[in-house]
Design goal:
about 0% strand; Tetracycline Repressor, domain 2; mainly alpha; 2 domains; homodimer
Protein backbone atom coordinates (compact mmCIF):
# COMPACT_ATOMS: atom_id res chain seq x y z
CA UNK A 1 0.00 0.00 0.00
CA UNK A 2 1.52 3.37 -0.91
CA UNK A 3 1.93 6.11 1.69
CA UNK A 4 -0.95 8.25 0.49
CA UNK A 5 -3.35 5.32 0.42
CA UNK A 6 -2.18 4.28 3.88
CA UNK A 7 -2.76 7.81 5.22
CA UNK A 8 -6.31 7.92 3.83
CA UNK A 9 -7.03 4.49 5.26
CA UNK A 10 -5.80 5.60 8.72
CA UNK A 11 -7.95 8.72 8.50
CA UNK A 12 -11.01 6.62 7.62
CA UNK A 13 -10.44 4.30 10.56
CA UNK A 14 -9.91 7.18 13.02
CA UNK A 15 -13.07 8.90 11.82
CA UNK A 16 -15.07 5.68 11.97
CA UNK A 17 -13.78 4.95 15.48
CA UNK A 18 -14.71 8.45 16.67
CA UNK A 19 -18.19 8.05 15.27
CA UNK A 20 -18.63 4.55 16.75
CA UNK A 21 -17.54 5.91 20.13
CA UNK A 22 -19.90 8.87 20.02
CA UNK A 23 -23.01 7.19 18.61
CA UNK A 24 -22.39 3.50 19.09
CA UNK A 25 -21.32 1.07 16.40
CA UNK A 26 -24.77 -0.11 15.41
CA UNK A 27 -26.22 3.38 15.14
CA UNK A 28 -23.48 4.55 12.75
CA UNK A 29 -23.77 4.01 8.99
CA UNK A 30 -21.28 4.06 6.13
CA UNK A 31 -23.09 7.21 4.92
CA UNK A 32 -22.36 8.93 8.25
CA UNK A 33 -18.70 8.02 7.99
CA UNK A 34 -18.39 9.16 4.35
CA UNK A 35 -20.17 12.43 5.24
CA UNK A 36 -17.90 13.20 8.17
CA UNK A 37 -14.85 12.46 6.00
CA UNK A 38 -16.19 14.66 3.21
CA UNK A 39 -15.65 11.69 0.92
CA UNK A 40 -17.98 10.04 -1.57
CA UNK A 41 -19.32 6.65 -0.62
CA UNK A 42 -17.77 5.30 -3.81
CA UNK A 43 -14.29 6.41 -2.72
CA UNK A 44 -14.89 4.98 0.73
CA UNK A 45 -15.79 1.65 -0.90
CA UNK A 46 -12.31 1.68 -2.44
CA UNK A 47 -11.01 1.11 1.09
CA UNK A 48 -13.72 -0.71 3.02
CA UNK A 49 -16.73 -2.55 1.62
CA UNK A 50 -18.63 -2.69 4.90
CA UNK A 51 -18.79 -1.35 8.43
CA UNK A 52 -17.71 -4.63 9.96
CA UNK A 53 -14.50 -4.54 7.89
CA UNK A 54 -13.71 -1.27 9.64
CA UNK A 55 -14.53 -2.73 13.03
CA UNK A 56 -12.26 -5.71 12.33
CA UNK A 57 -9.45 -3.39 11.12
CA UNK A 58 -9.76 -1.20 14.24
CA UNK A 59 -9.63 -4.24 16.51
CA UNK A 60 -6.72 -5.79 14.63
CA UNK A 61 -4.64 -2.61 14.66
CA UNK A 62 -5.34 -2.08 18.35
CA UNK A 63 -4.17 -5.51 19.44
CA UNK A 64 -1.23 -5.33 17.03
CA UNK A 65 -0.19 -1.99 18.52
CA UNK A 66 -0.22 -3.44 22.03
CA UNK A 67 1.56 -6.61 20.94
CA UNK A 68 4.30 -4.78 19.03
CA UNK A 69 5.17 -2.54 21.98
CA UNK A 70 5.09 -5.44 24.43
CA UNK A 71 7.34 -7.50 22.14
CA UNK A 72 10.07 -4.83 22.24
CA UNK A 73 9.95 -4.83 26.04
CA UNK A 74 10.00 -8.62 26.33
CA UNK A 75 12.98 -8.94 24.03
CA UNK A 76 14.94 -6.24 25.90
CA UNK A 77 17.47 -7.02 28.60
CA UNK A 78 15.75 -4.77 31.15
CA UNK A 79 15.11 -5.94 34.72
CA UNK A 80 11.56 -7.15 35.49
CA UNK A 81 10.90 -3.89 37.40
CA UNK A 82 11.93 -1.78 34.40
CA UNK A 83 10.03 -4.01 31.99
CA UNK A 84 6.84 -3.60 33.97
CA UNK A 85 7.43 0.14 34.27
CA UNK A 86 7.86 0.37 30.51
CA UNK A 87 4.70 -1.66 29.87
CA UNK A 88 2.64 0.59 32.15
CA UNK A 89 3.93 3.78 30.52
CA UNK A 90 3.37 2.43 27.00
CA UNK A 91 -0.08 1.09 27.79
CA UNK A 92 -1.21 4.41 29.30
CA UNK A 93 0.14 6.38 26.34
CA UNK A 94 -1.44 3.99 23.86
CA UNK A 95 -4.90 4.08 25.48
CA UNK A 96 -4.83 7.87 25.77
CA UNK A 97 -3.69 8.36 22.17
CA UNK A 98 -6.21 5.87 20.79
CA UNK A 99 -9.25 6.40 22.97
CA UNK A 100 -11.78 5.90 20.18
CA UNK A 101 -10.06 2.75 18.96
CA UNK A 102 -9.99 1.40 22.49
CA UNK A 103 -13.65 2.18 23.12
CA UNK A 104 -14.59 0.28 20.00
CA UNK A 105 -12.11 -2.48 20.80
CA UNK A 106 -13.54 -3.07 24.28
CA UNK A 107 -17.23 -2.42 23.56
CA UNK A 108 -17.94 -4.09 20.25
CA UNK A 109 -16.47 -7.55 20.68
CA UNK A 110 -20.00 -8.95 20.39
CA UNK A 111 -20.35 -7.36 16.94
CA UNK A 112 -17.29 -9.09 15.47
CA UNK A 113 -17.62 -12.14 13.19
CA UNK A 114 -17.15 -15.27 15.35
CA UNK A 115 -13.97 -16.48 13.66
CA UNK A 116 -12.29 -13.10 13.95
CA UNK A 117 -13.49 -12.72 17.56
CA UNK A 118 -11.80 -16.02 18.46
CA UNK A 119 -8.57 -14.93 16.80
CA UNK A 120 -8.69 -11.62 18.68
CA UNK A 121 -9.33 -13.37 21.98
CA UNK A 122 -6.25 -15.53 21.38
CA UNK A 123 -4.12 -12.43 20.66
CA UNK A 124 -5.40 -10.73 23.82
CA UNK A 125 -4.59 -13.83 25.79
CA UNK A 126 -1.03 -13.81 24.41
CA UNK A 127 -0.67 -10.19 25.49
CA UNK A 128 -1.86 -11.03 29.03
CA UNK A 129 0.55 -13.97 29.18
CA UNK A 130 3.41 -11.75 27.99
CA UNK A 131 2.81 -9.28 30.82
CA UNK A 132 2.39 -12.20 33.19
CA UNK A 133 5.82 -13.56 32.22
CA UNK A 134 7.38 -10.29 33.46
CA UNK A 135 5.62 -10.63 36.82
CA UNK A 136 6.61 -14.31 37.09
CA UNK A 137 10.24 -13.41 36.38
CA UNK A 138 10.14 -10.69 39.05
CA UNK A 139 8.70 -13.08 41.64
CA UNK A 140 11.28 -15.73 40.73
CA UNK A 141 14.13 -13.25 41.15
CA UNK A 142 12.69 -12.14 44.48
CA UNK A 143 12.17 -8.52 43.45
CA UNK A 144 8.36 -8.79 43.29
CA UNK A 145 6.19 -10.00 46.13
CA UNK A 146 4.55 -13.36 45.71
CA UNK A 147 1.00 -12.33 44.69
CA UNK A 148 -0.63 -14.65 42.09
CA UNK A 149 0.85 -13.25 38.83
CA UNK A 150 -2.32 -13.79 36.84
CA UNK A 151 -4.33 -11.71 39.32
CA UNK A 152 -1.63 -9.03 39.34
CA UNK A 153 -1.92 -8.84 35.55
CA UNK A 154 -5.73 -8.69 35.54
CA UNK A 155 -5.64 -6.01 38.24
CA UNK A 156 -2.97 -4.00 36.47
CA UNK A 157 -4.55 -4.24 33.02
CA UNK A 158 -7.94 -3.33 34.52
CA UNK A 159 -6.37 -0.22 35.97
CA UNK A 160 -4.79 0.64 32.62
CA UNK A 161 -7.63 -0.30 30.30
CA UNK A 162 -10.24 1.51 32.38
CA UNK A 163 -8.61 4.75 31.25
CA UNK A 164 -10.64 4.61 28.06
CA UNK A 165 -13.75 5.14 30.19
CA UNK A 166 -12.71 8.13 32.25
CA UNK A 167 -9.75 9.81 30.61
CA UNK A 168 -10.50 13.32 29.46
CA UNK A 169 -7.83 14.80 27.16
CA UNK A 170 -8.98 18.30 28.20
CA UNK A 171 -8.59 17.37 31.88
CA UNK A 172 -5.74 18.02 34.29
CA UNK A 173 -3.62 14.91 33.81
CA UNK A 174 -1.25 13.91 31.03
CA UNK A 175 -0.04 10.39 30.31
CA UNK A 176 3.05 10.88 32.50
CA UNK A 177 1.06 11.87 35.59
CA UNK A 178 -1.33 8.98 35.14
CA UNK A 179 1.37 6.36 34.71
CA UNK A 180 3.37 7.94 37.54
CA UNK A 181 0.44 7.61 39.95
CA UNK A 182 -0.42 4.08 38.80
CA UNK A 183 3.20 2.99 39.15
CA UNK A 184 3.46 4.51 42.63
CA UNK A 185 0.35 2.56 43.60
CA UNK A 186 1.34 -0.75 42.04
CA UNK A 187 5.05 -0.70 42.86
CA UNK A 188 5.01 0.57 46.42
CA UNK A 189 1.39 0.50 47.49
CA UNK A 190 -0.77 3.07 49.20
CA UNK A 191 0.25 2.17 52.74
CA UNK A 192 2.99 4.37 54.04
CA UNK A 193 5.77 2.25 55.37
CA UNK A 194 8.29 4.97 56.17
CA UNK A 195 7.37 4.82 59.90
CA UNK A 196 8.70 1.26 60.18
CA UNK A 197 11.92 2.18 58.38
CA UNK A 198 12.20 5.34 60.47
CA UNK A 199 11.49 3.46 63.68
CA UNK A 200 14.21 0.92 62.89
CA UNK A 201 16.67 3.63 61.89
CA UNK A 202 15.94 5.46 65.15
CA UNK A 203 16.47 2.26 67.11
CA UNK A 204 19.86 1.73 65.43
CA UNK A 205 20.88 5.31 66.23
CA UNK A 206 19.99 4.84 69.91
CA UNK A 207 21.83 1.51 70.10
CA UNK A 208 24.94 3.07 68.52
CA UNK A 209 24.90 5.90 71.06
CA UNK A 210 24.55 3.42 73.89
CA UNK A 211 27.41 1.35 72.48
CA UNK A 212 29.63 4.43 72.19
CA UNK A 213 28.93 5.51 75.76
CA UNK A 214 29.69 2.01 77.07
CA UNK A 215 32.88 1.95 74.98
CA UNK A 216 33.88 5.34 76.40
CA UNK A 217 33.21 4.01 79.91
CA UNK A 218 35.44 1.00 79.10
CA UNK A 219 38.23 3.26 77.79
CA UNK A 220 38.08 5.45 80.90
CA UNK B 1 -44.72 -4.07 45.99
CA UNK B 2 -45.46 -7.42 47.62
CA UNK B 3 -42.74 -10.03 48.06
CA UNK B 4 -43.93 -12.32 45.29
CA UNK B 5 -44.18 -9.48 42.78
CA UNK B 6 -40.75 -8.29 43.84
CA UNK B 7 -39.30 -11.77 43.34
CA UNK B 8 -40.78 -12.06 39.83
CA UNK B 9 -39.49 -8.59 38.96
CA UNK B 10 -35.97 -9.54 40.14
CA UNK B 11 -36.12 -12.73 38.11
CA UNK B 12 -37.15 -10.78 35.00
CA UNK B 13 -34.28 -8.34 35.41
CA UNK B 14 -31.70 -11.10 35.98
CA UNK B 15 -32.91 -12.97 32.91
CA UNK B 16 -32.93 -9.81 30.80
CA UNK B 17 -29.42 -8.90 31.98
CA UNK B 18 -28.13 -12.40 31.15
CA UNK B 19 -29.62 -12.16 27.68
CA UNK B 20 -28.26 -8.64 27.11
CA UNK B 21 -24.82 -9.83 28.16
CA UNK B 22 -24.88 -12.88 25.89
CA UNK B 23 -26.42 -11.37 22.77
CA UNK B 24 -26.07 -7.64 23.27
CA UNK B 25 -28.82 -5.26 24.30
CA UNK B 26 -29.94 -4.24 20.84
CA UNK B 27 -30.10 -7.78 19.51
CA UNK B 28 -32.37 -8.94 22.35
CA UNK B 29 -36.14 -8.56 22.12
CA UNK B 30 -38.96 -8.62 24.68
CA UNK B 31 -40.08 -11.86 23.02
CA UNK B 32 -36.69 -13.45 23.71
CA UNK B 33 -36.88 -12.42 27.35
CA UNK B 34 -40.46 -13.69 27.77
CA UNK B 35 -39.50 -16.96 26.10
CA UNK B 36 -36.49 -17.56 28.31
CA UNK B 37 -38.61 -16.78 31.38
CA UNK B 38 -41.36 -19.15 30.19
CA UNK B 39 -43.74 -16.24 30.67
CA UNK B 40 -46.34 -14.77 28.35
CA UNK B 41 -45.54 -11.39 26.87
CA UNK B 42 -48.77 -10.10 28.45
CA UNK B 43 -47.55 -11.05 31.96
CA UNK B 44 -44.16 -9.51 31.22
CA UNK B 45 -45.94 -6.28 30.27
CA UNK B 46 -47.40 -6.24 33.77
CA UNK B 47 -43.86 -5.50 34.97
CA UNK B 48 -42.06 -3.71 32.16
CA UNK B 49 -43.57 -2.03 29.11
CA UNK B 50 -40.37 -1.83 27.12
CA UNK B 51 -36.80 -3.05 26.93
CA UNK B 52 -35.36 0.32 27.87
CA UNK B 53 -37.34 0.28 31.13
CA UNK B 54 -35.47 -2.91 31.98
CA UNK B 55 -32.15 -1.36 31.04
CA UNK B 56 -32.91 1.67 33.22
CA UNK B 57 -33.97 -0.58 36.13
CA UNK B 58 -30.79 -2.69 35.82
CA UNK B 59 -28.62 0.44 35.79
CA UNK B 60 -30.49 2.03 38.69
CA UNK B 61 -30.29 -1.08 40.87
CA UNK B 62 -26.60 -1.49 40.11
CA UNK B 63 -25.59 2.01 41.14
CA UNK B 64 -27.93 1.86 44.14
CA UNK B 65 -26.31 -1.39 45.26
CA UNK B 66 -22.84 0.16 45.09
CA UNK B 67 -24.01 3.36 46.78
CA UNK B 68 -25.79 1.56 49.63
CA UNK B 69 -22.74 -0.53 50.49
CA UNK B 70 -20.38 2.44 50.27
CA UNK B 71 -22.70 4.49 52.50
CA UNK B 72 -22.42 1.92 55.30
CA UNK B 73 -18.65 2.05 55.11
CA UNK B 74 -18.47 5.85 55.01
CA UNK B 75 -20.73 6.19 58.06
CA UNK B 76 -18.71 3.63 60.04
CA UNK B 77 -15.98 4.60 62.49
CA UNK B 78 -13.41 2.38 60.79
CA UNK B 79 -9.90 3.65 60.00
CA UNK B 80 -9.24 4.76 56.40
CA UNK B 81 -7.24 1.55 55.82
CA UNK B 82 -10.14 -0.62 56.97
CA UNK B 83 -12.68 1.44 55.06
CA UNK B 84 -10.75 0.99 51.84
CA UNK B 85 -10.30 -2.71 52.56
CA UNK B 86 -14.05 -3.06 53.09
CA UNK B 87 -14.84 -1.16 49.87
CA UNK B 88 -12.52 -3.40 47.82
CA UNK B 89 -14.02 -6.59 49.27
CA UNK B 90 -17.59 -5.39 48.75
CA UNK B 91 -16.91 -4.15 45.25
CA UNK B 92 -15.33 -7.44 44.18
CA UNK B 93 -18.17 -9.48 45.68
CA UNK B 94 -20.78 -7.23 44.08
CA UNK B 95 -19.23 -7.38 40.59
CA UNK B 96 -18.82 -11.15 40.79
CA UNK B 97 -22.38 -11.72 42.03
CA UNK B 98 -23.91 -9.38 39.45
CA UNK B 99 -21.77 -9.93 36.40
CA UNK B 100 -24.62 -9.64 33.92
CA UNK B 101 -25.94 -6.47 35.56
CA UNK B 102 -22.46 -4.98 35.48
CA UNK B 103 -21.88 -5.88 31.84
CA UNK B 104 -25.10 -4.12 30.90
CA UNK B 105 -24.32 -1.25 33.27
CA UNK B 106 -20.90 -0.59 31.73
CA UNK B 107 -21.68 -1.41 28.09
CA UNK B 108 -25.06 0.13 27.41
CA UNK B 109 -24.72 3.65 28.74
CA UNK B 110 -25.14 4.92 25.18
CA UNK B 111 -28.54 3.20 24.96
CA UNK B 112 -30.00 4.98 27.99
CA UNK B 113 -32.39 7.92 27.60
CA UNK B 114 -30.31 11.14 27.91
CA UNK B 115 -31.97 12.41 31.10
CA UNK B 116 -31.52 9.11 32.88
CA UNK B 117 -27.94 8.80 31.61
CA UNK B 118 -27.11 12.19 33.17
CA UNK B 119 -28.66 11.15 36.47
CA UNK B 120 -26.69 7.91 36.42
CA UNK B 121 -23.45 9.74 35.63
CA UNK B 122 -24.06 11.99 38.65
CA UNK B 123 -24.61 8.96 40.90
CA UNK B 124 -21.44 7.32 39.62
CA UNK B 125 -19.56 10.53 40.27
CA UNK B 126 -20.85 10.58 43.87
CA UNK B 127 -19.64 7.01 44.32
CA UNK B 128 -16.17 7.93 43.01
CA UNK B 129 -16.06 10.96 45.32
CA UNK B 130 -17.09 8.81 48.29
CA UNK B 131 -14.21 6.41 47.70
CA UNK B 132 -11.94 9.40 47.11
CA UNK B 133 -12.87 10.85 50.53
CA UNK B 134 -11.49 7.68 52.16
CA UNK B 135 -8.18 8.08 50.31
CA UNK B 136 -8.02 11.79 51.16
CA UNK B 137 -8.61 11.01 54.83
CA UNK B 138 -5.85 8.38 54.79
CA UNK B 139 -3.38 10.79 53.18
CA UNK B 140 -4.32 13.52 55.70
CA UNK B 141 -3.74 11.14 58.60
CA UNK B 142 -0.42 10.09 57.12
CA UNK B 143 -1.32 6.42 56.77
CA UNK B 144 -1.59 6.56 52.95
CA UNK B 145 1.15 7.81 50.68
CA UNK B 146 0.57 11.07 48.91
CA UNK B 147 -0.49 9.89 45.44
CA UNK B 148 -3.21 12.05 43.78
CA UNK B 149 -6.37 10.59 45.39
CA UNK B 150 -8.48 10.94 42.25
CA UNK B 151 -5.97 8.89 40.25
CA UNK B 152 -5.80 6.32 43.04
CA UNK B 153 -9.58 5.97 42.85
CA UNK B 154 -9.68 5.70 39.06
CA UNK B 155 -6.88 3.12 39.18
CA UNK B 156 -8.52 1.14 41.95
CA UNK B 157 -12.00 1.20 40.45
CA UNK B 158 -10.55 0.23 37.07
CA UNK B 159 -8.96 -2.78 38.70
CA UNK B 160 -12.24 -3.70 40.39
CA UNK B 161 -14.66 -2.94 37.57
CA UNK B 162 -12.57 -4.77 34.98
CA UNK B 163 -13.54 -7.98 36.76
CA UNK B 164 -16.81 -8.02 34.81
CA UNK B 165 -14.71 -8.58 31.67
CA UNK B 166 -12.52 -11.45 32.76
CA UNK B 167 -14.02 -13.09 35.82
CA UNK B 168 -15.06 -16.67 35.21
CA UNK B 169 -17.26 -18.13 37.98
CA UNK B 170 -16.14 -21.63 36.94
CA UNK B 171 -12.48 -20.59 37.23
CA UNK B 172 -9.98 -21.04 40.01
CA UNK B 173 -10.51 -17.86 42.05
CA UNK B 174 -13.26 -16.89 44.45
CA UNK B 175 -14.08 -13.35 45.55
CA UNK B 176 -11.79 -13.63 48.58
CA UNK B 177 -8.72 -14.61 46.55
CA UNK B 178 -9.33 -11.81 44.09
CA UNK B 179 -9.79 -9.11 46.71
CA UNK B 180 -6.86 -10.52 48.69
CA UNK B 181 -4.54 -10.22 45.69
CA UNK B 182 -5.82 -6.76 44.73
CA UNK B 183 -5.43 -5.53 48.31
CA UNK B 184 -1.90 -6.92 48.52
CA UNK B 185 -1.06 -5.05 45.33
CA UNK B 186 -2.73 -1.75 46.24
CA UNK B 187 -1.81 -1.64 49.92
CA UNK B 188 1.80 -2.81 49.84
CA UNK B 189 2.78 -2.81 46.19
CA UNK B 190 4.51 -5.40 44.09
CA UNK B 191 8.05 -4.37 44.99
CA UNK B 192 9.47 -6.44 47.75
CA UNK B 193 10.78 -4.25 50.49
CA UNK B 194 11.56 -6.98 52.99
CA UNK B 195 15.32 -6.85 52.19
CA UNK B 196 15.59 -3.33 53.63
CA UNK B 197 13.60 -4.31 56.74
CA UNK B 198 15.67 -7.51 57.04
CA UNK B 199 18.93 -5.65 56.58
CA UNK B 200 18.00 -3.16 59.28
CA UNK B 201 16.81 -5.90 61.64
CA UNK B 202 20.09 -7.75 61.08
CA UNK B 203 22.03 -4.59 61.82
CA UNK B 204 20.11 -4.11 65.08
CA UNK B 205 20.76 -7.72 66.08
CA UNK B 206 24.52 -7.30 65.51
CA UNK B 207 24.63 -4.01 67.42
CA UNK B 208 22.80 -5.60 70.36
CA UNK B 209 25.26 -8.49 70.45
CA UNK B 210 28.17 -6.04 70.37
CA UNK B 211 26.57 -3.99 73.16
CA UNK B 212 26.07 -7.12 75.29
CA UNK B 213 29.68 -8.25 74.85
CA UNK B 214 30.95 -4.77 75.78
CA UNK B 215 28.65 -4.74 78.84
CA UNK B 216 29.89 -8.18 79.88
CA UNK B 217 33.47 -6.89 79.47
CA UNK B 218 32.55 -3.92 81.70
CA UNK B 219 31.01 -6.18 84.35
CA UNK B 220 34.08 -8.44 84.40
Amino acid sequence: MNARRQAVRDQILRTAADLFRERGYRASTLDDIARRLGMSKASLYGYFRAKDEMLAAISRETIEGFTRELGLVLRSSLSPEDKLRRVVRQHVRFVIANRSFLTVFFSEEASLPARFARQLAAQKDRYDKGVESIVVEGVRRGVFRDVPPRLVVFGLLGMLNWLYKWYNPAGRWGAEEVSGAFLALVEDGLHRRAPRGQALTGKIRRLKRELQSVERALDA
